[in-house]
Amino acid sequence: MAKKKCVAMLLAGGKGSRLNSLTKDLAKPAVPFGGKYRIIDFALSNCANSGIDTVGVLTQYQPLLLNSYIGIGSAWDLDRKDGGVTVLPPYAESSEVKWYTGTASAIYQNLNYLKQYQPEYVLILSGDHIYKMNYESMLEYHIEKRADVTISLIEVPWDEASRFGIMDTDEELRIVDFDEKPANPKNNLASMGIYIFNWNILKEYLEMDDRVPESSHDFGKDVIPMMLEENKKLFAYPFKGYWKDVGTVQSLWEANMDLLREECDLDLFDHGWRIYSVNPNQPPQYISPAAVVKESLINEGCTIEGDIEKSVLFQGVTVGKGSTILESVVMPDAIIGNNCLIERAIVPSEVKVPDGTVIRSFDDEIILVTNEMLSGLYPAF
Amino acid sequence: MKKELLGVIDATTYHEDLEDLLAHRALAALPFAGRYRIIDFVLSNMVNSGIRSVAIFPKMQYRSLMDHLGSGKNWDLNRKRDGLFFFPSPIVDFDGNKIGSFENFAANLDFFYRSTQEYSLISNCYTVSNMNFSPILEWHSNSRCDITEIHQKDGGSMEMYLIKTSLLIKLIETRNETGYTCMKDVVNDIQSLYTICNYEYDGYAVMIDSIENYFSTSMNLLQSDVWKKLFIKEQPIFTKVKDEPPTKYIKGSVVKNAMIANGCLISGSVENSIISRGVKIGKGAVIKNCIIMQKCVIEDNCILDSVILDKDVKVEAGTQLTGTAGSPFVVRKGTQQGALMNS
Description:
- The structure holds 2 protein chains of 2 kinds.
- Chain A has helices spanning 40-49, 63-70, 103-108, 111-115, 135-144, 199-210, 219-229, 249-258, 371-377; strands at 6-11, 32-33, 37-38, 54-58, 84-88, 91-92, 97-98, 121-126, 129-131, 149-155, 165-169, 175-180, 189-198, 234-238, 243-245, 285-287, 292-294, 297-298, 303-304, 307-309, 312-313, 318-319, 324-326, 329-330, 335-336, 341-343, 345-347, 352-353, 358-360, 367-368.
- Chain A is 21% helix and 28% strand.
- In chain B, strands 13, 15, 17, 18, 20, 21, 23 and 24 form an 8-stranded parallel β-sheet that branches. A 7-stranded mixed β-sheet of chain B has the order 5-4-1-6-9-8-10. In chain B, strands 12-14-16-19-22-25 form a 6-stranded parallel β-sheet, with no helix packed on it.
């Protein structure tokens, strides 16, 4: 197999439990976003746009949909004769089944995948975030700094800092301290979960980490602190631009609403950096004479007969006559009946909302519509 | 064994009445319904009817058609065995439609010899419909007809023919002796040796042969009953997919009775119109009864009524363009319309 300069490993096994019923049957990276996409499209498209053509996708939790969605990677131009996308699920060895217990063990268990390409650098990504980033520029930075590891960082709001890995750097941006999810963060420079490792260092430390029985085999908690202790050269790569961890129903809703702004920081219309996804091939959206559409993002295959305002509608959504959808996200193939009112809610894929249903939030909380909720409103006779 | 059909699409047709839209493309590649090319309908119908081998015979200006079809992947026709075949005419024919499709078929007779399908369906490339050919094949094979010509209910020929592949080969081989240049010649010969039957198709179908009929057929799509006849979930119309984002409706936009493809940025008002992929409509612009093709840019405060904008047209701010339903104003591909040009 041909040698590759840089191979990406995309961690896509996360459960995303704070997304509640949205991730009951699918992994967080497969959650629909932005009227057309799934969260993982962003990392995969970034790879394709950054010239990285070899990507291992590590799956574990509810992988069925994710596996079939990724397929052979042709949607992201990653169906390659040499390299391309490879889905890497956990596997059994003669003695035991090796589940991915942490981010580091997931990579450790696929060292053989990496060895085939004899890479110089390994890019470790998470399939959980919405952002556009040129990994090639980060790699250039990594090489320029002669770093052992480069970690991308972003400034986050202070009140959210304790959800992230928080870094402390010197003036040269060399990392001097790294705290994974600290209770009292020292600053608000958060790790985006994007690492570039020199291959030899990665191999060495993953093998070392595997031998530590009390390790949780996590990059942020175990591997990075161990490298800092041994005085390895870790550099921070400051990222500016849109980046969102859509880990909760609220943040998923917010990120969708961000797209409706006239000047949106996340430009989906930039042909120079397209976000690719599996195209559903549906007819154009049909806006009926009775419909009113304002400040929204609507995908093909929708049939709109009601009022849509400040909402994101995925492919194949039907909205009946007299219905109003306000500040909501309606996922693929959901059917909203006639005379419904849906306000500040997320309607998951294929949910059928019966005629006359009213769903609105009276506090700030975003409502995640479920079939149970709807059958509660309309008890079966 | 299941009876199999070979799909043959005659894409050599040229309609002078569509000239303004065909300067850069073959009729088969005429954009339609916001994201399709006209050939997508018959091609998808063939695929949805279980046809696994389709030969397309284009003549002039086939670059855009070739670009559209590619390997046939979007129709699931990129197969190891059978699939999509593209046979451009080897004849440089400057004389319009003088040379019939049999001449083009003859240049590729080997393809017909090699095909294993017992029956062939020969179709034109410009019929807008969503039809299943399986029941028609069933009907044809149970009849004693040599050739079945599909007719519209209470209408004329749809220029679609079912025939045994062996007979088709014979007709091509003997074209010089018989004088038949195409299937039309065969079925219209009153002294024909063959039993020719008509099959009446009672579903929705329109053959696009003039600007007027292109315009009215497009506008009819805005009626939901027509729309539902053409776009059926179980029998999708396939096309070349593009990685466009969903369409964004920006503050100030007003949209009513419209069919809108992906990747558009709409700030103005749109009514009774069909908007293709990647179109930008500026603030204060008013688009009524229009067909706007791919990647057009309509700047602020333009007023367009009964206009067809071909691909990549730019309409400068404040421009006013007006046509009528019977004679829409057609703007050719890639041109620019300024505010002062038509005043």
